[in-house]
Write a structure and sequence with these properties.
Layout (H helix, E strand, L loop, with lengths): L7 H40 L1 E15 L2 E11 L5 E4 L15 E7 L4 E4 H39 L1
Antiparallel strand pairs: 1-2, 1-4, 2-3, 4-5
Helix pairs in contact: 1-2
Length: 155
């Protein structure tokens, strides 16, 4: 009715046997997340226009890994109206200082404003996450393939 308790060595071997599957699953998750970051930045670039934006202020808060920052941007339209935008992205190190005028992109339909430097940061972060995911996926898949072809040869 109840299975016998396993030894630490058996438990350790079972954990090692699941590592390639975990690597493949993590690879898919990381790859998808990284591609989403890249897609989000490129989609925003296509629907927005280049414009100088003013950094009104930079909010900061403590996180587990130190202090993170989120700038509050302001952009002026040709008719004199302005919009302010504070995105949901918190980054470290501090991307801008209060009062800076930076190159940015503005989507006037949604009111979203991003600085070019923060877009580059998110794109490079997406590339890094995608590459890590690809490496995990390939290593896990290669190990499983190698193990299966090796077991066929020995039979």
């Amino acid at each position: 009715m109840f299975s016998m308790p396993t030894s630490f060595a058996d438990f350790f071997l079972k954990c090692l046997k699941t590592l390639p599957y975990v690597a493949i699953i993590n690879g898919v998750i990381f790859g998808t997340t990284g591609l989403y970051f890249i897609y989000s930045a490129s989609a925003f670039s296509t629907r927005s226009v280049v414009q100088e934006v003013h950094v009104m202020s930079v909010e900061s808060r403590r996180s587990d890994n130190g202090t993170v920052y989120r700038p509050l941007f302001k952009a002026l339209q040709n008719d004199g109206t302005s919009i302010t935008y504070s995105g949901s992205a918190w980054v470290s190190p501090k991307p801008h200082n209060d009062g800076d005028i930076v190159d940015g992109r503005v989507d006037w339909e949604t009111g979203e404003i991003r600085s070019v430097s923060m877009m580059k940061f998110h794109t490079s972060m997406g590339k890094t996450i995608s590459i890590m995911g690809g490496i995990c996926f390939v290593l896990g898949a290669f190990y499983l393939w190698w193990k299966r072809t090796r077991s066929r040869i020995t039979k």
